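Re-running Diaminopimelate epimerase to confirm reproducibility after the cluster update. Everything else is unchanged from the original entry.
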Amino acid sequence: MSQHRRGQGPSLRFTKMHGLGNDFMVVDAISQPFRLRPDMIRKLSDRNFGIGFDQLLVVEPPGLPDVDFRYRIFNADGSEVEQCGNGARCFASFVRDQRLTNKKIIRVQTAKGVIELRVGRQGMVTVNMGVPELNPPAIPFAADRQKTVYTVDVDGQTVDLSAVSMGNPHGVLVVDNVDTAPVETLGPRLESHPRFPARANIGFLQIVDRSHARLRVYERGAGETLACGSGACAAVVAGCLRGLLDSRVEVELLGGRLVIEWKGDGAPVMMDGPATTVFEGQLRLPGGDKPSRRPKQGKPARQRS
Ligand SMILES: N[C@@H](CCC[C@H](N)C(=O)O)C(=O)O
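Result of re-run:
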C-alpha cells in the first residue's frame, strides 16, 4: 500500500520487466492507488533522469464480464495506446508473480478489444493478438481503397509500405538488409506521416527465407526499440500478404527472437516469446502527483501536439 512521509508524496510499487529488450515499468493499480500525468510518465521513462522504459504497463480490474484484467499501455512520450505485444507477455508473467491470478490462460481487456495470454514453460508466453485489420480507415491509414502495398510520398521520395493494424497502427517496409535500413531517418518521418493520422509504428522487414525474417521497428512514441511484438505480427502479416513468408515465421529482432503464426484471412495472429523480470522497486512520487482511486480513461495516441 502507498505510504506518506512528511513533506513527500505517496509511494508507488513497480516492477521493471522486458520482452527481448523492449522494456517496461509495470504497475499494479488493483492493490494500490495509481494515476500519473503524461509529463510524469515522460520523466520516469528517461534513461538518465528516471527509471527508463519504452512503455508503462498498468494492471487494472476488468470493465467487462469474462475478462480477468484491464491492460493499459502508455508510450515513453506519455501517449496512451491500444496494444503492446511484448508487454502482453510481461503482463501475464506479472499478474501471476504478484499472485493477482493463478490462471494459465488469462483474458485481458485492451483499448482495442480482448486478447488471450497463455503462460507456458520457462517464462514463455503465447499471445493471441487477434485478427489483423487491413481496412485503411480502421488502421487508420489514408487511402482510397485497400491494397497490399501503398506508395507513400516522403519529402518528394516514394516509399512502398504495407499498412496493418494489430490493434495499433503499423507501416511495414521490405528492405534488403536491416543493418543498413534507414530506420533513424525514415522511421520518424513515417511515424508522423499525414497518411497515418494517429501516427504509426514503422517496421523494416528483411526476408531471410520463407520462415525466417529480420526486423527493426521505429516505434510510435518511443523511437527504435530492441523488439516490438505487435510490429513482428504486423510484419509477418505483411510478408504473408505479399507472398514472401509462410504461415509460421521466426522473427529475429535486435533483442532476440519471436515465433509468429498467421494462417491467413480472418485468422488471429499468435505470438510466442519470453517475458523477463529485472527488478522490483518503490518510487516516491512528488506531492502533486497524488494517485487517485479512479484512473481516468485515456484516449488512444493521436498526433503529437
Ligand atoms: N512495443 C510494443 C508496442 C508498444 C506501443 C507502440 N509503440 C504504439 O504506439 O502503438 C509491442 O511489443 O507491441
